[in-house]
Hints:
By secondary structure, the chain is an alpha/beta fold. The protein has helices at residues 11-21, 34-43, 60-70, 84-92, 105-120, 151-162, 170-178, 187-202; strands at residues 3-7, 27-31, 48-52, 75-79, 97-100, 125-128, 131-134, 139-142, 145-147, 168-169, 211-214, 218-221. Helix 2 runs parallel beside helix 3 (60-70) and helix 6 (151-162) packs across helix 8. The protein starts with a strand and ends in a 5-residue tail after the last strand. The strands form 3 sheets. It has a 5-stranded parallel sheet, with helices on both faces. Strands 6-7-8-9 form a 4-stranded antiparallel sheet, covered by helices on one side. The protein folds into 2 domains: 3-120, Rossmann fold (3-Layer(aba) Sandwich); 125-221, Orthogonal Bundle (Arc Repressor Mutant, subunit A), CATH 1.10.10.
Amino acid sequence: MAKILLVDDESRMLDLLSLYLSPRGYHCIKCTSGADALQYLHEDHADLVLLDVMMPEINGWEVCKEIRKKWDIPIIMLTARSEKIDIIKGLNIGADDYISKPFDEEELIARIEAVLRRKHVPNGLISFQGLNLNEDSFQVSYKHQQISVTPKEFSLLTLLLKNQNKVYTREHLLTTIWGYSAMTEDRTIDSHVRNLREKLRKAGFPVNDYLTTVWGVGYKWMDKEA
């Protein structure tokens, strides 16, 4: 389930957007100011931001700039202003798309789906709750913080993320990743899982919520929203 951060100083607009998006399976978080939105992103994640431009104190353009400094989150600017110069300004500072009020519900949904497809399925990139794996460069990052992992740790994390909620036995992991026979000690897996957990934890990722031990069997990566 994709999480969408709705940012608008008008509560009625937030309620309307949620009314459109929630039945489509989107989890909506509502913020009535740019400051609240930035604070939320510091504490949690979002898969996409629907961002109003004309807000008091911190306008949408400034919020967009601040988001781009720290996070690679898709942003759709949502505003009553439709002048070409405003659209160009929004796109130049990092917005992924722009839609004007009043908007058509189906057009809004289509634009959200298109942006999510472009951002979340680039070649070789796996994303989960702000955690990113690049299979082309063998890099792991969390909220733009690089995490140094070994090739085996990378392979283990990739396998689990690609097959969320599936339980893997230690034997299966040994055969798939290490190519070892079942005679190899399970401590090989346990040691790598322990090291991987520690690295993700130090980077701030809540790994214990997702990389879980299935006692007597093995491990799985649990997606709570599935």
